[in-house]
Amino acid sequence: MSVYNKQQTHIVKVTGYSSGGDGVARLNDGKVVFIRNAARDDELEIRLIKEQARSARAEIVRILAPSPFRTEPDCPYYPECGGCDYRHITYEEEQRAKLQRVNDAIERIGGLAICAGEILSTGQLDGYRNKAVFHSKGQSVGFYRAMSHEVIRINSCLLLDDALNDAIKALAPGGEITLRSGRNGLQEPFEVELDGLVFQLNGFFQVNTGAALLLYKKAREYAQLSKTDVLIDLYCGVGALTLFAGRDASYALGVERNAAAVETARENAALNGLPNIEFITADVANWKSETASPDCIIVDPPRKGLSPGAVRRILELSPNRIVYVSCDPATLARDLRALEGYAPTDICAVDMFPRTANVECCCLLVKKQTSL
After folding, report:
1. How would CATH label the architecture of 9-65?
2. pTM of the predicted model, to two decimals?
């Protein structure tokens, strides 16, 4: 392994972005280097701050020739705060980077030719977050500094909605503080309205209500449900997506291991007058279905994706269609390969988290026809 002088600087040209939003370049010997706050086509003087066998991290010493995609950050806490990754580039470049991240994962990890041709966006870049987690140390209340647990005191955050920003002023130090806002203010459980449905939420829900609507509409479109179809929603949480898509089916069942979330899901079904939708508490990998083979299965797993047991269970249920909602393109790509007998026919990205490197995906898989 090469050893670099920490005082030595290097001249590089940034060629793209990592999955975490860092700029990517190569040193003269070919080693990949990741550079925070860099933009594609920047020409930079950099200094290495961490070295590994195959890669290194670096900081910018000087911008020798700025990228045409670079823009002046509009937040006084950026880039010290770790909440945003892309406030130094245009939104068009951010969208391009996210689509590239999705399609690179599908091709390199999944080995598939299909690609996402669009990224759905509400166009609202700020004020979209309905949830925030604040940290405190001493008398400071705020967010963590990038790549550390050091707390940066903040007075307001561009990503948060008005109710959350108003609440910051009244926060007292006290460990980790989680706040959520909905149509009923900062009460618990908070309420969200989507396309005529009302959800009470005391568990996981998307932090961007407007983008969640785009994602749910796409999942509903992919599910292609009719009044004679059966839907099963795995990892259903409080049932928001189950209800959103399941209202089109003759019967829908949500499966979730968190008992409190299942109880809320049942309350949401009753609140919206949907008696055709039921929920059970069970582990996805070990659950035994009492229903016939479903026409469609929706999965929205955690970031780590589907377990091998969950993949087996889905294949045993043998639906005609699978709608996979994912918050990590890498695990999505891995699972698409594992779902043997199913071909991904359509995929789109959803910009759930503008100004950050995170991106959601929704993919339709259709059962392959077997030859006689």
Report:
1. Beta Barrel (2.40)
2. 0.92
